[in-house]
Design goal:
The chain is built from 21 helices and two strands. It is an all-alpha fold. It is a multi-pass membrane protein.
Amino acid sequence: MPGHVEDTPDEGLMGAAAGAAGVQPAAVRLLLTILAGYPIAAFYTAYVAEAVPFKTLHHMFFFACGAGLCYLNYGVDTYHSLLGILVTYLLVRFLRHNIRLMIGLNVVFHMSYLLLGYLFTASNEYDILWTTPHCVLVLRMIGLGFDISDGLKAMGALSKEQKETALPQVPSLLELLAFAYFPSGFLVGPQFPLRRYQNFINGDFRQHEGNVEAGMRRLATGVFYLIVCQLGLSVLPDSYFLSSEFAEVGFIKRTFLLGFWAKFNLYKYVSCWLLTEGALIYIGFTYKGKDVHGQPDWSGCSNVKLILLETGNTMEHYIQSFNVNTNRWVGQYVYRRLKFLDNRTISYVAALGFLAVWHGFHSGYYMAFLMEYMIVSTEKQIARFYEHAILPQYGSILSRSDIYNVLYFVTLKSYNIVYMGWGLTPFVFLKYERWIVVFGAVNYFGFIYLIIWAVFYQTFGHFSGNDHGQ
């Protein structure tokens, strides 16, 4: 999240470690806070989970650990999150029978507070300060308001996912604090509902085995991605793409370099989510059910689908595999709550607009989500055209051609790499005067090819046997 880096008392030691790694001191603190989830999980498993029968003490443990870690990172700015939690508690406690007013006030308060935080702290870079965990908290508290309102409805009026998250009772303030500050979930996510936390505290997941081993495997995977990220960005730093040196490289090489750079930037998020998920698995929080082999599945809070991320060939594959829980949250609490509009396109645009606003004011966010919408829409149009106009005439010939199959794979994979670079550029560089430089350095190819396709599809799209919309 964007913001302004504030000085903290431990800048000496942290500064030295950060300088050696080539990152901000705040990034080192963030990483250490994520890793702290493992000893906390080990302590809880050994001395609290079975030994302490009172749920109140479990809530106190998680609140103290999480709030303490938050204070170590952001000092007195921890009050921002405390205030947000208190406001939501008061709203759901006293206004839950006036659903529209409660939800409206809850959403407006949290989004307004977050945006004001961005307004007073934003800079040109991705800085790490109190707005980093606060954007996670905002979704958690807004979701809680909806879950409380769902708990007042008849079960027959709820969807399957709403039944799994609905809250018939208002939680205590201590329980809400523990849920909001859960040590391995408050800083960078993932999103999860209060019902999961309650099931965990009730011991519903404790009889299942394999969580410690699965958690350590996720830890190792996260460390691997972190190393690859740091090595990749040391070779292709952000600053390189703003330089004249990059602009002088051959066009094709430029587009691929931008694509590989984007992949390394994604790995920053992937590594943090994997490390966080590992701690959640270790503590036994993420039980999902039995897998196809009848073994416990600990992927209930997975925020990235690694196989799809690494093998996918389209922008939609990236969306399906990246920041999974946030996308699921938006789907449940924004997209499907707009079902009354009876228009998927409007609901989808509204969901993307919400995500852009949630990220902040920088133009890069809005351009990035606009590009996501345009690229995904174009992919669907191309898929329809290929399925209805190309395959009926040439499918039998193409399927028997090894050369075609190789070209098909290479083309899709190249597109996947190249357009990821284009799509992520504004998200990373944030300011118009920065991301437009990178767009110009690659000759605005992303715009040009999308426009060429749009003209072609409007002219010949009728051959696909479908209308031109989504």
